[in-house]
Amino acid sequence: MRITMIDDGIAFDGSAPDARPLGGAEKAFARLAAAFRARGHEVSAVTRADSQMLIEGVSWMPWDAPRPPETDVLLAFRKPTLLGEVAEAAHRCLWLWDHPANLAGEAERAALARHRPTLVFTGETHSRALKTDILPAQTIVPGVADIYRIAPVIEEPAQVAVVTTHPLHGLQRILRLWRDRIHPARPNAELHVYSAVLRRALNAGAADEPLREVYDEIVAARGDKVTVQRPLPDPEMADVYAHARVHLYPVNAREMYASTLAESQAAGLPALVRATGGASAQLLERVKNGMTGYFAPDDDAFVNLTVALLDPDGAVYRNLAREARSLQRTRGWNDAAIEFESLWTRGS
Question: 79 and 175: one domain?
């Protein structure tokens, strides 16, 4: 099959996930393109890339390049307005990533009505968020890059907790709980916050609104072994997860997939989700509660479970990490590619 994939977001290409920090959506796009090519398809990936290049057999094309003259499958990423970028295609799919509320605009609705694509969701919760039976739809859970699925087993990792979500999505409360209750109970433990925007603010010595309160909390927590790290490419993040004890994760109701949580779970890192507003259905698809991590219903539970996971004895950590490696690293991008193929082979 001749597959054209198209995304008009940031500039990236197929080498990016292993070379520099990249968002979960862009990494998914690049990994699926490579998986399609590995399965024998002819793949063109159109993005805001700087120049045309061939990476792992995929033809990466900059936005201003002519579109492929012949396409069997057009896979538009995130935006319905991209469905018209290729004139002729036997099959058109819209791979959704964000909250379906983004489809409500007039231009988006018009594109869906004109092209009538197959909608592809990242999970059952994602699918249920869009109430429509007008268009064909399929749920295809993204894969996880192999580098996370083969992360080494570290029997006694350091007493490190990591946070990867955006600073405005619950980080301030986690920092306060760390300073007031968690770090006093585990004085040798460290909290590593992976955030490009906070790292830039710290380098500049100030933060503008709306980050100012979180920034001030970070500065105040420096004496409590809290550090802000720059996000890393996949090979290095896999190593970070393998050497940590717990991934602290606050619920964000608009987040549909949670890429870093899927990756850390595959690497064998237990998750602790702060779910004071109730368990998030989409995150319950990423974490097996009580087996590969926990959902903390209140601050007391969050504190107690974090302290337990950071225990130097490591018994709680080891049990959850073993189950995460057993249950969460089975699905790769080849599996996802096979399910995408079924969308057009069964309709041929």
Answer: no
